[in-house]
Design goal:
27% of the residues lie in helices and 14% in strands. The chain has helices at 13-16, 22-34, 37-40, 73-83, 109-119, 137-149, 189-198, 234-247, 262-268, 271-277; strands at 8-11, 44-46, 87-93, 123-127, 156-159, 178-180, 211-213, 251-253, 286-287, 296-302, 308-314. Helix 2 (22-34) packs parallel to helix 4 (73-83) and helix 8 runs parallel beside helix 10. Bound molecules: alpha-D-galactopyranose (GLA).
Length: 354
């Protein structure tokens, strides 16, 4: 399965956690269409943890969708999502239980992959909790990578081992198409900034077919829901979304898209930013060296077609000077060349008091 650009979609976890249902997923799929998210490139509707009963079916050994949350079963829900021209994603885990203590796929990889394929699943997020002693992540992700390939269906493999065990040195070899390179995000400015800065030395494995995953976005959550925490301001969310796009990573929305406000909808459908994220060369950016990088970052990236992207991120609560020298970007004075700038996203009006 070829995955040439970073996947885009929505995932239930950040806002809904355990509180998920057939109706929520259908309404969110509707919102993809009604709000223009699908037209902007968002495609995957993903159910995270907590979708099943607490034990497998004794007779078949299969994981059973919770009939209270998903009374029509997963196949019917997948059909609904597909009828909207979207793709359907689900979640399991490499260990014996999922992180929220539901049955997981250890030693059931091939049965579960087959079940997901029969239901019409297009995307599998695969977590890393409760792995038995003596089994390395590398082997467990290989097992599910093989099981998905043997399932008879193209299923995007989204590995989620939180960036541990030097994941970037082996993950591409498991068949994964994206891999979490950080711990879990929370809806605070500190959380997304820390994640972005932590990627500086971790983008070396990133590229087409297997992308670094900086976690689902908190953009538009405003502190509500499962990873809600203190919440962020609109200006913070602009930084967060632009950072993810500058890094060219998967864009998985995590807010309640059914109630997203206009300002946040405009942000997450910003054509210029999405074009940077989805650039076909899939190069990682570099972060300009700055001893004050906790306070400000300048990020530069080569794009296709003789274009470049530069992002200025002020993490401070006051105005800051940002320096971007052409020589740092590799353009010498002797070259006689310069850049022509086209703004994609500026600071909010009045952000610094004027
Ligand atoms: C882990 C993952 C999260 C989410 C939860 C579900 O913490 O990193 O993204 O999937 O498990 O329990």
């Amino acid at each position: 399965m070829l995955v040439n650009t970073p996947p885009m979609g929505w995932n239930t976890w950040n806002t809904f956690g355990n509180d998920i249902s057939d109706a929520l997923v259908r309404e969110s799929a509707d919102a993809f269409i009604d709000l223009g998210l699908k037209d902007a490139g968002y495609q995957y509707v993903v159910i995270d943890d907590c979708w099943s009963l607490k034990t497998r079916d004794k007779a078949t050994g299969r994981i059973v969708p919770d009939p209270e949350k998903f009374p029509h079963g997963m196949k019917a829900l997948a059909d609904y999502v597909h009828s909207k021209g979207l793709k359907f994603g689900m979640y399991s885990c490499a260990g014996q239980r999922t992180c929220a203590d539901y049955p997981a796929s250890f030693d059931h990889e091939y049965l579960d992959a087959k079940t997901f394929a029969e239901w019409g699943v297009d995307f599998l997020k695969y977590d890393f909790c409760f792995c038995p002693r003596g089994f390395k992540g590398e082997l467990l992700y290989r097992r599910m990578g093989m099981a998905l390939r043997a399932s008879g269906r193209d299923i995007l493999f989204s590995a989620c081992n939180w960036g541990v065990d030097d994941v970037w040195s082996w993950i591409r070899s498991t068949g994964a198409h994206m891999f979490r390179s950080t711990g879990d995000i929370f809806d605070t400015p500190e959380s997304f900034r820390k994640i972005a800065i932590s990627q500086m030395n971790r983008l070396n494995a990133h590229g087409a077919q297997c992308f670094n995953d900086m976690d689902m976005l908190t953009v538009g959550m405003y502190g509500k829901g499962n990873v809600g925490a203190a919440g962020c301001t609109a200006a913070d969310y602009r930084s967060e979304f632009a950072l993810w796009c500058m890094c060219g990573v998967p864009l998985m929305l995590g807010c309640d898209i059914r109630t997203i406000d206009r300002e946040m909808l405009e942000l997450v459908t910003n054509h210029g930013l999405i074009a940077i994220d989805q650039d076909p060369e899939c190069r990682q950016p570099y972060f300009m060296h700055d001893p004050e990088r906790e306070k400000k970052l300048v990020v530069f990236r080569h794009l296709d077609g003789g274009k470049y992207a530069v992002g200025f991120f002020n993490f401070d609560d006051k105005e800051r000077d940002m320096t971007f020298t052409f020589s740092d970007a590799g353009l010498t004075a002797a070259s006689g060349l310069g850049f022509r700038f086209t703004p994609v996203l500026g600071p909010l009006e009045g952000e610094y008091g004027e």
